[in-house]
Amino acid sequence: MDDRVHPEVRRTATEIDTMETRGAATIADSAARALRTQATESDAADAEAFRAELRAAARALYETRPTAVSLPNALRYVLRGMSSTTVEGLRQNVVESADEFCARLERAQADLGEVGANRLRDGDTIMTHCHSTDALACVEAAVEQGKHIEAVVKETRPRNQGHITARRLDELGVPVTLIVDSAARRYLNDVDHVLVGADAVAADGSVVNKIGTSGLAVNARDRGTPIMVAAQTLKLHPGTMTGHTVDIEMRDTAEVVDDETLAELGNPTVKNPAFDVTPPRYVDAIVTERGQFPPESIVILMRELFGEGTSEPWAEPEARAEP
Q: What else is known (predicted)?
């Protein structure tokens, strides 16, 4: 890692890489705060050195999860605020942009929760997959409105993120039934909604989320159970408007099986994709802090927020992608 990168940025990058810090909103918040620290602690001699230092810090963060969407969206927001021509001015630019981003992020989840709660009725049972703070915000808002909500929670192998969801729902007073992933279809008739988050939403309304989401969505559609995706606008992938595809991260096979067991099995090839893509035809609504949208309409919101494309302000000037 670049020597100019502050230790706090290094720590944040490591925690994102190892999934100690997880969840798109949490990752984005951590990244913005890390850049803030880089700026406040910088001893750069001039404005160009400061800019280069911030780009290096942003690259260190970006490279931990190059397939994520909220992370680069957070980096873009903070770096694009650097308009001054002096070190102190640039430092203030970054601090203000990072603070504004984190404040908007905090409000966004609460606003999203209120929108999502309107789709949940008193007495509803939801089914969840993986762990999503956006999805939980919808449940929390519904509970605060006095609605009784119950949940069927998929454990979500191989890292069992469903256990985190189960604990959080229990804290909210929501009765939880924990099931193995392969039992989802059996219990879909017992639920009123499938409620999931998203790591990314493409311009055509496709949803990139934890592996297993697409299979759950297909089964839910077959059973007639509506599927709601809770996703802050920071999950929207502006690059998909200009033809970029969403890369699917492959995780370490050790998450699935250890070396000793692998050898006992005859050393088969192990695949551990982190995400899959759910086509928009299986999604009933995408809920954001800006309102709820049918998946085919999400591109309208995307154009409003990002224009027709995006860039990579963390890249060195000679290597930057065209907007």
A: Reaction proceeds via a cis-phosphoenolate intermediate.
Scan for tokens 């302000």, then name that residue: 313
Binding residues are 22-25, 65, 209-210, 235
DSSP state letter for 250? B
pLDDT for residue 241 is more than 70: yes
Residues 32, 146, single domain; the answer is no
Q: Are residues 177 and 91 in the same domain?
A: no
Last-in-domain residue among 81, 109, 137: 109
Contacts of 62 (CB under 8 A, 6+ apart): 71, 72, 75, 314
Binding-site positions for substrate = 22-25, 65, 209-210, 235
Output the six-digit token pair for 97. 């942009």
CA distances from 304 to 96, 100, 228, 286, 299 (A): 23, 19, 22, 16, 9
Residues 253, 128 share a domain: yes
Number of structural domains found in the chain: 2
pLDDT for 41 beyond 60: yes
Domain range holding 78?
Answer: 7-109
Does one domain contain both 52 and 105? yes
- pLDDT at residue 287 is higher than 70: yes
Structure tokens at 71: 């992370």
- Answer yes or no: are the C-beta atoms of 288 and 232 closer than 8 Å: yes
- Which residues have a catalytic role annotated? 130, 199
Q: What is the mean pLDDT of residues 269-275?
A: 95
Does residue 2 sit within a domain? no
